[in-house]
Amino acid sequence: MRHIGKLLLLTSLLTSSLAFGQITADPEERGERGAQDPLRSRTPEGNPLPFMQRLRFGGGISGLSIGNPFSIGVSPVVAYQASERAVLGVGVNYVYTRLKLYDSAGQRYNFTANQYGGRVFGMYEIVPKIIPNLYAHGELESISVQDNYSGAGLPVNRTWIASPLVGVTYSQRIGRLAGINLSALYNLNYTTSSTQVYGSPWVLRISFF
Length: 209
What we know:
Blueprint: H1 2-16, H2 27-32, H3 51-54, E1 55-65, E2 70-74, E3 77-81, E4 86-102, E5 108-125, E6 134-146, E7 158-174, E8 178-187, E9 202-208
Antiparallel strand pairs: 1-2, 1-3, 1-9, 2-4, 3-4, 4-5, 5-6, 6-7, 7-8, 8-9
């Protein structure tokens, strides 16, 4: 429980400074789109925003799995608004996993694992005129996993596992400076060893940037 408390505290710190970037509105384009979606990568004059003004910083909860094994993680993110519809980014992941096992007498044992790594991702808004803020999402994640749970009485080694994830992300903007992103991704490289990172080939994620 101490690990979970620390993870949730870290998540709250990450999300307290969600994202920043100067996002300006083009009157013509706003008029065409119902005055609800300001430009993300250009000034009102049509010039590209400077690099630093396209950056967004944030993070969120990753690797959430309720069940056995249970897992929860945090993932700081730096995202770059490459164009009006495309977002590129990098992140760092940490996932805590707990496995519950019972012996023949019904005694419960908790085994734990701490996984860490990084990821690169890309998002592209699919059909903005029909469903605004819905993105196709692809990423490559590489995580160092323990080959055995701590507390199992066996030597613990680490192995790097690469996971290509594909799916969709819906981004709900908060004002002009940040957004809440809900992602549903599928692990194309899900194997038995991957259960030490995620309890399912489906990865559900909430992030803020």
